[in-house]
Automatic annotation (TrEMBL):
It comes from the Eukaryota. Residues 129-154, 165-180 have a biased composition (Basic and acidic residues). Residues 1-10, 155-164 have a biased composition (Basic residues). One of its GO terms (molecular function) is mRNA binding. Residues 17-40 have a biased composition (Polar residues). Belongs to the LOC1 family. Residues 1-58, 129-189 are annotated as: Disordered. InterPro entries: Loc1 (IPR037650). It comes from Nadsonia fulvescens var. elongata DSM 6958. The keyword Amino-acid biosynthesis does not apply. This is 60S ribosomal subunit assembly/export protein LOC1.
Length: 189
């Protein structure tokens, strides 16, 4: 068995102020508060309550719905004398003059919008057309440049062929002028 040492109990240290013990020092440090005194937690009865005569507390007045002018919340229940109309409700039109004036204003605004849209569309179409023409002109220039390069290359090849043919003809002429050598022939019998 292993024996453990017992730990010594910790000594509590208390910090006691000297003011609590010394009344003269505590009186010198005391500050009188100018604030209103705090109300106590407990409800103290008034002296009249202690004597048996309690003060009467007035209850606030309760107003009825009619006095306040509040409409009834439950409108599904109607008195027998009042009958609401049932079925479709008809449309209520404004005065014809006012309606026509409003319609004219709205149509004018829409027409202005459409007209400006048409003008913008025409301007955009003109821009697109000019771009298309530019692109076509550039493509035409490229084609012409390509065709000219092709024709130059063909002409060079054609010139080279002519020169080589002339050179071949000249060599053949030189050979024909000289004595013709007989070729050896081999016969199999």
């Amino acid at each position: 068995m292993v024996l453990h040492k017992k730990k010594a109990p910790t000594v509590r240290r208390e910090n006691v102020s000297e003011l609590s013990g010394n009344k003269q020092a505590s009186n010198q440090l005391a500050v009188k508060s100018t604030a209103t005194p705090k109300q106590s937690k407990y409800n103290h009865r008034s002296r009249s309550g202690i004597n048996g005569v309690a003060k009467k507390v007035k209850k606030p007045r309760v107003y009825t719905e009619k006095e306040l002018g509040i409409p009834k919340l439950n409108k599904s229940i109607d008195p027998e004398g009042i009958k609401r109309p049932k079925g479709k409700k008809g449309k209520v039109f404004a005065d014809e003059d006012a309606m026509t004036r409003i319609l004219l204003q709205v149509n004018e605004a829409v027409d202005n919008r459409n007209a400006s849209k048409l003008e913008r569309a025409r301007a955009l179409e003109a821009i697109r057309e000019s771009k298309r023409k530019e692109i076509e002109a550039k493509e035409e220039e490229k084609k012409q440049a390509l065709d000219s390069m092709k024709s130059e290359i063909k002409n060079k090849k054609h010139k080279l062929r002519k020169e080589t043919k002339k050179a071949d003809v000249a060599t053949i002429d030189k050979k024909s002028e000289g004595p013709a050598k007989k070729r050896k022939s081999v016969s199999f019998k």
